[in-house]
Amino acid sequence: MQNVFCVILYALNTKRVEKILLTRFLDYISFDTQSDESSTTFPSTESQKKFAAILCDELKIIGIKDAFVDSNSYVYGSLPSNSNKKLPVIGFIAHMDTSPDMPGNNIQPKIIKNYSGHDITLNPDQNIILKTSEYPELKEYTGQTLITTDGTTLLGADDKAGIAEIMTAIEYLVQHPDIEHGEIKIGFTPDEEIGRGVDYFDVAGFGADFAYTLDGGRIGELEYENFNAAGALIKIRGNNIHPGYAKNKMLNALHLVSEFNTLLPPQQRPEFTSDYEGFFHLIKVEGTVESATMQYIIRDHNAQKFSEKKAILQMITDFLNNKYCEGIFTLELKDQYKNMREMVEPVFYIVEYARQAMIEAGIEPHIIPIRGGTDGARLSFMGLPCPNIFAGGHNFHGKYEFIPLQSMVKAVEVILNIIRIVTNK
User: Fold this and answer.
1) Apex 163 CA angle, 30 and 185, nearest 5
2) Known catalytic residue at 97
3) Is domain 228-337 given the CATH code 3.30.70.360 in the classification?
4) b/e map 285-306, b = 16+ CB within 10 Å
């Protein structure tokens, strides 16, 4: 059956919803909320605290009376049920921080109305061009409104688009109390981009039976499985001697960095993998002849293959210590998050709700594995099953990031459809 409520809503008010979303989104991305992996505070940056307070105030303005920011800068709120039925409590969650991989301050977005389907010059001075030959999916949005960067920063659609979409959907429900629904929970989290997003999330206090993160990519994405993830730190102890007298004495830690990396399978690097294929990703090297460090992230959807990857790092460490001297290499491994599939499959109907919501919004669902992680992965293991829904953006974490405004409108429609579907079950 067609979703009559949403068909009527968007047939009559699409332009109004677009305007609201655009205004919200441009406001949100004006705040620099990058997280900082090197920080020892929570959240990792003061700017996230300020943004949390602003979002809390906005929730109160639109009618969420119990909205509050806790001591860890999580934003919580709820829309009470207006139904006589005993309905599940649904949560919608998005994260406030943006990636530290690319500058996130002084964002100067470009708004491309009625996109022509051709290359987009983001920055003529630096000759930075968003090319259809490199990003052919651009042509799918011909005639739509695109929001892009100016080629010098990221955009922040990951995940401020998700916040704007949740806020807009909740505001609509507040303004239309005649629409029946159960209790709806809202949560905005800090530090997702550095893997700490739910370190202190109050699952019990949140009180949802299940939830959805609005943190996916292109329109139609629906995800309930993600990488198993770990981080690896390798410390290397060299021996620095004056190069004129170094024969049989020097041990150059920088050369050992290269030797370690070449022992890993090159076909298991991110640039050579896709779909369910995992990888080793060298993300940072620091050092001198005397000492050096290497940082990797390890990812795989399959638990056994994930364990094998960690074992490979240990075998290389042991091999090189045996070759040179015990203690030259030390390996520190830390698990980060697990594949949420095992926690979501027992309640797979929540994935079906989202899939049906997309179909009724005229969207073809793409159920795919996340080649990364979301807050929902860890929340699922904390007792809150939490699949991930598209927010609409492309090319996250980089200067070629863009988002079609119409995809954001559809995300709002999907939220409202989920609520309606659950209410009518």
Assistant:
1) 145
2) yes
3) yes
4) eebebbebbbbbbbbbbeeeeb
The CATH architecture one would assign to domain 4-225+339-424 is 3-Layer(aba) Sandwich (3.40)
Half-sphere exposure (CA, 13 Å, Cβ side) for 29?
30
CATH 3.30.70.360 range(s) for the chain read 228-337
Give mean pLDDT in consecutive 10-residue pieces for the chain, a chain of 425 residues. 42 79 97 94 97 98 97 98 96 97 94 97 96 97 97 96 97 93 98 93 98 96 95 96 93 97 96 95 96 97 96 98 94 93 96 97 94 89 97 95 97 96 93
CATH 3.40.630.10 placement within the chain: 4-225+339-424
- Residue 239 burial class via C-beta count within 10 angstroms: exposed 0-12, middle 13-18, buried 19 and up: middle
- Concatenating the DSSP letter of every residue in 7-42 gives HHHHHHHHHHHHHHHHHHHHHHHTS--B--TT--SS
Tell me if the pTM is above 0.70: yes
Q: Which of 32, 58, 97, 300 is catalytic?
A: 97
| 206 burial via Cβ count (<10 Å: 0-12, 13-18, 19+) | buried
- 401 catalytic residue (yes or no): no
Which among 192, 225, 300, 401 is annotated as catalytic? 192
**Could you please report the per-residue DSSP string of 125-166?**
TTTEEE-TTT-GGGGGGTTS-EEE--SSS---HHHHHHHHHH
